[in-house]
Write a structure and sequence with these properties.
Oligomer: single chain
Shape: elongated
Structural class: alpha+beta
Order of helices and strands: HEEEEHH
Strand order of the largest sheet: 1-2-3-4
Distance between the termini: 45 Å
Number of helices: 3
Largest sheet: 4 strands, antiparallel
Radius of gyration: 21 Å
Length: 114
């Protein structure tokens, strides 16, 4: 039995439902477990888009997710810079930059939850 078939059987035993829709990448049937839909073969989540409005909403959410991740990475870089900095003027500048990034992160999260 292939690994893919084993995974599908395990999903069904755990209460997942096989859907009539298939993965857009590999054409394997999709599974729903709770609110999540995913491909057992590709082992990744899949969004089912039923309207143009859903498509726009999904694309917007993906962009905001990417932006949020980029901001978190930059905040991490700033954290390291602040830890190693000894110059007061440079620390102030890094602090202001961190404040700006944190404000942007807050706005991104508000948009995602709206």
């Amino acid at each position: 039995m292939s690994e893919e078939v084993k995974r599908m059987a395990d999903l069904l035993r755990s209460g997942a439902v096989m859907l009539k829709e298939t993965c857009p990448v590999c054409a394997t049937p999709l599974f729903r477990l709770g609110k999540n839909v995913f491909c057992a073969k590709c082992n990744r989540p899949v969004a089912i888009v039923k309207s143009a409005e859903d498509e726009v909403r999904l694309a917007t959410h993906q962009v905001l997710d990417g932006l949020e991740q980029a901001m978190l990475e930059k905040i991490g870089e700033l954290n390291l810079a602040i830890k190693s900095e000894r110059e007061l003027a440079q620390l102030r500048e890094l602090g202001e930059t961190a404040k700006t990034y944190l404000s942007a992160l807050e706005q991104i999260r508000k948009l995602k939850s709206a």
